C-alpha cells in the first residue's frame, strides 16, 4: 500500500479501499481481518503523518536527505517510526525486527544495515523500549 502511495502518487484512501480486492491477498490464512485492519491503519497513518515522520528520520540518518534514500528504505523507515510514535503497545524490538525483515525481503544487505542504524538512533532519541 505504501509503495503504491509513494510511487503511484495515489490517494491512500483509494489504495486502502481496493488493496485487499486482489486475488493474491484474498486468502484469509495469509492475513486475517484484524491483520488487514491493522495494515490499513498503519498505511493510512504513515500517509497522514509523513510530514512529522520524515524530520525524525532525517535527524537520525546523518547526512541523508529523505528524497535521496532508496524508496523502499524510506517507506520501511516511515512505517517503523510511525509505529514507534503511534503504537506504544508494540515493543521497539518488535518494530525494528519487522523493519529489518522487510528490508531483507525487499532490499539488500546494505539497506538492512542502514535501516537498523537509523531505527536504533530514532529509538534512542525517542527513548523507546
Task: Give an account of the 3D structure.
The chain is mainly α. The chain has a single domain, classed as N-utilizing Substance Protein B Homolog, Chain A (Orthogonal Bundle), CATH 1.10.940.10. 27% of the residues are buried.
What is the third-level CATH name, the topology? N-utilizing Substance Protein B Homolog, Chain A
Q: What is the level-2 CATH architecture name?
A: Orthogonal Bundle
Structural class: mainly alpha
> Would you identify the regions where 5 or more consecutive residues have pLDDT less than 50?
none
Mean pLDDT: 90
CATH C-level:
Mainly Alpha
Distance between the termini: 27 Å
Order of helices and strands: HHHHHH
Largest sheet: none
Determine Rg (CA atoms, Å). Answer: 14 Å
Query: How much β-strand is present in the residues?
Result: under 5%
Task: Tally the structural domains.
Answer: 1
Shape descriptor reads: globular
Question: How many H/I helices?
Answer: 6
State the helicity in percent bands.
over 70%
**Secondary structure: number of strands:** 0
What's the name of the CATH homologous superfamily?
Answer: NusB-like
Amino acid at each position: 500500500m505504501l509503495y503504491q502511495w509513494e510511487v503511484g502518487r495515489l490517494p491512500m484512501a483509494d489504495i486502502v479501499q481496493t488493496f485487499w480486492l486482489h486475488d493474491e491477498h484474498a486468502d484469509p490464512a495469509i492475513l486475517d481481518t484484524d491483520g488487514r485492519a491493522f495494515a490499513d491503519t498503519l498505511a493510512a497513518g504513515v500517509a497522514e503523518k509523513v510530514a512529522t515522520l520524515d524530520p525524525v528520520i532525517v535527524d537520525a540518518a546523518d547526512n541523508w536527505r529523505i528524497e535521496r534514500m532508496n524508496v523502499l528504505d524510506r517507506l520501511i523507515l516511515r512505517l517503523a517510526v510511525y509505529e514507534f510514535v503511534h503504537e506504544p503497545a508494540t515493543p521497539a524490538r518488535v518494530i525494528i525486527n519487522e523493519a529489518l525483515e522487510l528490508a531483507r525481503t525487499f532490499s539488500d544487505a546494505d539497506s538492512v544495515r542502514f535501516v537498523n542504524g537509523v531505527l536504533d538512533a530514532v529509538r534512542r532519541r525517542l527513548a523507546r523500549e
